[in-house]
Structure formats: C-alpha cells, structure tokens
Write a structure and sequence with these properties.
By secondary structure, this protein is of the alpha/beta class. It has eleven helices and eight strands. 37% of the residues lie in helices and 16% in strands. The longest helix is centred in the middle third of the chain and has 17 residues. One of its GO terms (biological process) is proteolysis.
Length: 314
C-alpha cells in the first residue's frame, strides 16, 4: 500500500432533510478520480483507505455513507437504503463535477459498487471489488445463523450470549429488537457483541488490535444498527438481484478486477465465484492465504496492483 497521506479538501454534502454526508479528497487534484465505498454498511472510512491508490495519479474521494463515520446524524436508520446511497454517490459526483470515475469497494462496499454501477453504468470507468457480498439470504444465513459458527465456536458463543435461547432461530431479527431497544445499555451491549463477531472473524489470523474498535460506543452503535437494518430489509432489493443476467448485462463492458480471500468467512468465496460465472469478462483473483480484511497482505497487494493497472485507463 502507498504511504499514508492527508486530504487536501474536506467538506459535507446535504443529501436529504435528515442526512448530511462527510467527504474528503486526497492525492492529486488533477488526477483521475476514484471513489472509495466503505464496508458495513455503517463502517465509515478510515485514513488508511487512501493508501490503496497512487497519490500522484489519483484524485481520491472518500465518503462516509448515511449514518456512518463523520456523517450526521450518526446511526440514523431513517431514509437509509441501498438506493438512497446510490443517489448520494451520484449527487457527490455531480457536486464535484466529475464526468466518470473509478469505483472501489470491498465487502458491503462491493455490494454498493455493483448497485451504483448497474444504476449508472455510463459513469463508471472501472470496478475494483474485494470480498464480494451481494446480500443474498444464503450469505446472511451462513454468517449470522449457521455456517461461520462451525469455524469460530468460541466467538459464536459470545455473539449469541445477549440473545435468549428461544430467539436464536433468527439471530438477525433477535438482534434487531435489542439494537433498537429503548434501554440504552441493552442496545449498546448488543451493538458491541454484533460488531465483535464480525471483527473477530474478518482475518485469517484473529487480530486483537483489529477487534478493539468494537469497544468504541459510537462506532459499534452505527456499525451494528445500520448493518442489521439493511439485513432485516434484505438490502432493499430482490434476492440475488445484483447477480441477475439483466443487471450484469448493464455493466459487462466495464473493466472489473475482483480480489477474494480463499478463507473469507464473512463473505465466502462462493459469491465471488458466482459473480465471475455470470460475468466471465471480469478478472477474479482468489488469494490462497487470506480471509476477509482488505489489510491482509495478499489482498492489499492485489488491490494496489489493480488500482495501478486502471490508473492510466482512458
């Protein structure tokens, strides 16, 4: 990854009566524009996210999605859907007077990247996607109900602990009740447990430092509440919509590189493979010694190689 840099411009964009988004620009003011779409939903951007791009060649745009990061109001679920976020990305592009840009997203960011590209294919120069997630019921069931628990049984015990046994047949729905409880202690404890489950399982080797962020009330609250809100509502789309032929046909002409960890438990490789099968024109790299996190060495290396490859794309 490239050395860490600071943004040369930061601002906010009011996108509705409720929501105001934080965004920043770094790198080369005259460079080729790229937008980084963070994960979660609800995760917010991190200063290290700028380092996937050559700062001499790229004009790097980071945006905190509705309710996430520095956007306000925090953890707000009202008017917060996939299609609201797609409109926000387009509104920001217009605000910055960018004709076309590269789109980069991992995990939920890959979901949003696909949704945006399929909605505005004429505005996307390329796609770099990591840890493919399309919010199908089968993907949610694997991670939150019956799948990943077989690989991380001790972490699963902590995840299910806040939920009464009688409600564990639908963990997403059970967590929805607790995350939106009127009792603040119940809500924040649930948020931390939900967030810790994902952070614990995100790397091939469990990283205690990576998990520490889940102890921050504001991060855990936004991350868990917004994620759960999207999952309870099936991502506000048809099951498997992003993989449907008529949707892929809209973006088939866009150069796309997919980077997927072989042992990604959060977003298993089966989804990246499904995307490759319906979109054979895309390039799929499966990293043999990596999990989910974009920070894992093999994944980060391929992501940077991908952005380098597209930096001079006309």
């Amino acid at each position: 990854m490239y050395p860490e840099i600071k943004p040369f411009f930061t601002s906010t964009l009011k996108v509705s009566d409720i929501h105001t988004l934080y965004y920043e620009i770094s790198g080369n003011p005259e460079g080729v524009p790229v937008i980084f779409l963070h994960g979660g939903p609800g995760g917010g951007c991190d200063e290290k996210d700028r380092s996937f791009f050559n700062p001499h060649k790229y004009k790097i745009v980071l945006m905190d999605q509705r309710g996430s990061g520095k956007s306000t109001p925090p953890a707000c679920l009202e008017d917060n859907t996939t299609w609201d976020l797609v409109k926000d990305i387009e509104k920001l592009r217009e605000e910055l007077k960018i004709e076309k840009w590269h789109v980069f997203g991992g995990s939920w960011g890959s979901t949003l990247s696909l949704a945006y590209a399929q909605s505005h294919p004429d505005r996307v120069k390329s796609l770099v996607l990591r840890g493919i997630f399309t919010l199908r019921k089968s993907e949610l069931k694997f991670f939150y109900q019956d799948g990943a628990c077989h690989l991380f049984p001790e972490a699963w015990d902590e995840y299910v602990a806040p939920i009464p046994e009688s409600e564990r047949h639908d963990m997403i729905l059970a967590y929805h009740a607790q995350l939106n409880s009127a009792d603040e202690e119940t809500s924040i404890n649930a948020a931390k447990a939900w967030s810790k489950w994902e952070m614990t399982t995100s790397k091939l080797y469990v990283d205690p430092e990576y998990i520490k962020r889940t102890e921050e009330d504001q991060f855990a609250n936004a991350f868990a509440k917004i994620e759960n809100h999207y999952f309870v509502n099936d991502g506000f789309m048809r099951d498997g919509q992003l993989l449907e032929k008529q949707e892929i046909d809209k973006i088939r002409h866009i150069p796309c590189i997919i980077v997927q960890g072989r042992y990604d438990v959060v977003c298993p490789a089966t989804t990246a493979y499904a995307l490759k099968k319906v979109w054979p024109e895309s390039t799929l790299h499966i990293v043999p010694d990596a999990g989910h996190s974009s920070r894992e060495t093999g994944i980060a290396k391929l992501l940077v190689e991908a952005t380098n490859q597209f930096a001079d794309l006309a």
